[in-house]
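Standup notes, structure subgroup. Blocker cleared on the 1,3-dihydroxyacetonephosphate input:
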Amino acid sequence: MNEVELFKAAQNLDKVGYLETDVDPTINLEEEINKLKKEKNAIILAHYYVDSEIQDIADYVGDSLGLSQMAESTDADLIVFAGVHFMAETAKMLNPQKKVILPDLKAGCSLADSCPAPLFRKFKEKHPDHVVVSYINCTAELKTLTDICCTSTNAVKIIESIPEDKKIIFAPDKNLGAYLVKKTGRDMILWNGACMVHEIFSAEKITKLMIRHPEAKFIAHPECEPHLLEKAEYIASTSGLIKFTQESEADTFIVATEAGILHEMQKRSPNKTFIPAPPENQCACNECPHMKRNNMEKLYTAMKYELPEVILPNWIIEDGRKCIDRMLDVSAKAGL
Ligand code: 13P
Ligand code: SF4
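Run returned:
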């Protein structure tokens, strides 16, 4: 891309989300990305839900907590986030002086979208004496209205860190919230949000799979609906589910979360069988359309031109970071 083309493509970022350019189909994207990584002292952070080829080229693949911890401790100059917008925002808040790029700015999250900050502010005003705990899957602006963040890995510890006499609002995921109410015994006011991926699993199809594979263990992410979680033999975050499949004596698993996770499960346990839990629609497995907006071409172009960049106002960085710092603190003390 010459300067004029780059200027035009950059002008279009808000509309299309990524730099629109033709990538030479003869180049070896893996080699080029690795070259850019060295040249720019960049780190590629990827979530377990992105395409397997991106997971394979990343410097670190992890769950939301691991990715935040890695973003906080990296000494790379350029942070490339192969995930979704709220994750890249979190990395930016933890690294205000560094450039953070996301291959596609439109890689959003239905959970984050389900809790707009202005609406939440009004809701919070109605419950002034409550501590606000937000799942990290929320916007940077929502984090400015949050006392402490959590991820699915540390959620129980975060809730337990709040004194018993304090009342709690939990946002934005009602399913994770309901799971935490059950697990911790704490009464919480739940925001009515949900993840579009974890909400559409078919209980009927899963039951049929369990009958067909009686030896299989059904495992699920706590973003799933309560009636599904009731059926699950094990409930955990993405990293927790991966660890469980690795350590379990079972060799077949029906997995209710985004299907990208199967790549790491299969890598760690090549001889085990992983069956993705099917959704209500006609698809055989469940994919997050936002995570899947990341691809190798966009990753390469983003690294080459260092665009699109995640930019946040200073007040959001300063106010929003506090709830992430508190979360990292409690996690570290809990040995997570
Ligand atoms: P974890 O990786 O923290 O389990 O979160 C799953 C998720 O939905 C990320 O968008
Ligand atoms: Fe958001 Fe759900 Fe996609 Fe995770 S899987 S990024 S919670 S929409």
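Discussed briefly. The chain has a mean pLDDT of 96.
Next: hand off to the docking folks.
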